[in-house]
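User: tokens in, sequence out, please.
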């Protein structure tokens, strides 16, 4: 029992960790199910129009969150943030939405989430980061899984959408390396950086949407619901959850979302849209999932090995 008048802690470390894991689960559900939402909504709107509208609303939501949390909104390194916005928001969002026109929600999600395996060689080339044996093993497993999903030996109509999804993963990986290079040079507030780059990317997408011909928007309840889901949940709430996760969990544990999100996308696409993967695709998805798990476990082990007091060096 606590002494009379003693202050009781608001929450124990174990409670905080459980809440962070719950936040990770909710985040994975939101971002995983959003693949189905993005697939379904293009029945009512051109993919580039939807990309432009959702990113404008997403950026506006993040700036509202910045105001509510009283976080700084100063734009730092404008040119670099513009480049990041073009890569991480404009090109990435346009490619995934375009891929979903002909590609399945679950399959597209898995192909896009090959991103961590593209990051490793790009960071090796651009940043000079060493590639460890476990990382090479993860890349090899993921590459084999990717071949099984793409099935280059079978001539199928979805080849172009597959390439768009892989291209989105490559673009995302390039933006991750750009962001890491920026953070090595100076300090950035993660939420403010995300809001500004999303705004610049949204403006680029608006230009693309205005230039390219498109069909009129069908203003159905699902269309407005998809916009609300993307702005409020997949952007505003999701980024608050992500910041909370990063604050209370290790980077390796946070990286487990990269395993959960595409798997939820596959399950949601299977249940709601009837997208049943072929045998080769299913095995390929399992291999990519295993490679993502291997990468996360490597990050966890490396973080513990280099933590202060663990006997390893602090990086």
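Assistant: Sequence out:
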């Amino acid at each position: 029992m606590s002494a009379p008048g003693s202050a009781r802690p608001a929450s124990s470390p174990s409670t905080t960790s459980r809440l962070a894991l719950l936040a990770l689960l909710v985040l994975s559900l939101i971002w995983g199910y959003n693949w189905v939402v993005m697939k379904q909504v293009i029945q009512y709107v051109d993919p580039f129009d939807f990309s432009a509208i959702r990113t404008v609303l997403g950026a506006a939501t993040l700036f509202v969150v910045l105001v509510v949390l009283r976080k700084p909104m100063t734009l730092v390194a404008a040119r670099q943030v513009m480049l990041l916005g073009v890569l991480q928001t404009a090109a990435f969002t346009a490619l995934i939405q375009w891929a979903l026109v002909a590609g399945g929600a679950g399959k597209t999600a898995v192909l896009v989430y090959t991103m961590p395996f593209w990051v490793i060689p790009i960071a090796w080339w651009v940043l000079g980061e060493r590639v460890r044996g476990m990382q090479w093993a993860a890349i090899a497993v993921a590459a084999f899984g990717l071949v099984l999903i793409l099935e280059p030996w079978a001539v199928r109509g979805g080849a172009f959408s597959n390439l768009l999804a892989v291209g989105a993963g490559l673009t995302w990986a390039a933006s991750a390396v750009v962001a890491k290079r920026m953070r090595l040079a100076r300090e950035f507030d993660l939420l403010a950086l995300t809001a500004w780059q999303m705004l610049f990317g949204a403006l680029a997408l608006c230009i693309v949407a205005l230039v390219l011909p498109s069909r009129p928007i069908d203003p159905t309840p699902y269309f407005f619901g998809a916009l609300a889901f993307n702005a409020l949940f997949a952007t505003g709430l999701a980024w608050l959850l992500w910041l909370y996760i990063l604050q209370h969990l290790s980077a390796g544990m946070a990286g487990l979302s990269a395993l959960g999100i595409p798997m939820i996308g596959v399950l949601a696409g299977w249940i709601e849209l009837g997208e049943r993967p072929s045998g080769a695709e299913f095995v390929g998805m399992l291999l990519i999932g295993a490679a993502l798990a291997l990468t996360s476990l490597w990050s966890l082990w490396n973080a513990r090995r280099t933590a202060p007091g663990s006997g390893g060096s602090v990086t």
